[in-house]
Amino acid sequence: MIRIKRDFATENLVKGQLVYGERIIKKKGKEFRIWDPKRSKVGAALQKGMKIPLTEDMIVLYLGVASGTTASHISDEVKNGMIYGVDPAPRVLRDFLLLSEVRKNLVPILKDANRPEIYKHLVPEVDLIIQDVAQPNQAQILIKNIKTYLKKGGLAFVAIKARSIDVTSNPRKIFKEFKHELKDYKIIDEKSLEPFEKDHLALLIRN
To answer: Does residue 6 form part of some domain?
Structure first.
C-alpha cells in the first residue's frame, strides 16, 4: 500500500481490472487503485490514521463482505493469502462471486455471520477479522467469530454502526456499551469515521 498525495492506493492484483469505478494511477510500470474512503470503512479508518497491518500471506475473515469493494483492496495487499467473505445476501454476494473468479484469493460464503459454526468447515484459523455488518447484535456477532476463528494475538477490525444498533440512542452511549462488551479483548486503536461515515466508530482489537 502506498500514499499518492492524500490518498491510499493498493497495487492492482489483476492489472487492468476496475472493481467499483475507482481511479487508477500508474507508477514505474505498476498499476495502483485509489482506495476511496467514502466507499470503504477500512479505507476511511486508514484515512483517519488507523494502522491496519496487511501482509501478503495473511488469512482474513470478512463478515459483511457485500459485493467486495473493500475486500478487493485487501485482496491486492494479501496477494499470497486468502480472504473468506461471508454475507447472507445472495444478490450482493453474486457480485463478490464474480470478483472471486478473477481474484483467486477470495472465497465467497453465503452464510449468516450470526452462526459462525455453520461455515467452520470452510474457514481456517485467521490472522484478521473484518466486520462491517448492520445488525443490532453486532458486538455479539464479532465476539462469536473471534472465539471461533481468530488466532491468539490476531486482530479484528470493526466498524460500529450506531444507527443500526439503536436508532434512538446517542451514538456515544452505543460506542461505550459496545466497547464494554469487548472487555475481554484489548482495543489498540479507535477512530471516528466522520466525515466519511456518520455515527460510525472503527475499533482495532487484539485477541
So the answer is: no
Nearest to 128, CA basis, from 78, 168, 182, 184: 78
Is the residue at 126 inside a domain? yes
Number of structural domains (the chain) is 1
User: CB 172: neighbour CB atoms within 10 A?
Assistant: 11
- Count Cα atoms within 13 angstroms, Cβ side, for 196: 20
Encoded amino acid at 98, one letter: L
* Angstrom distance (rounded) from CA 16 to CA 12: 8
Is 13 contained in some domain?
Answer: no
Q: Which domain holds residue 166?
A: 36-206
> What is the chain's pLDDT, residue by residue, as a tens digit (207 residues)?
898 888 999 999 999 999 999 999 998 889 999 999 999 999 999 999 999 999 999 999 999 999 999 999 999 999 999 999 999 999 999 999 999 999 999 999 999 999 999 999 999 999 999 999 988 899 999 999 999 999 999 999 999 988 888 888 888 898 999 999 999 999 999 999 999 999 899 999 999
161-165 contact pairs (CB < 8 A, 24+)? 161/133, 161/134, 161/199, 161/200, 162/199, 162/200, 162/201, 163/199, 164/134, 164/135, 164/136, 164/138, 165/135, 165/136, 165/138
Length of the chain (residues)? 207
| CATH number of the domain that residue 62 is part of | 3.40.50.150
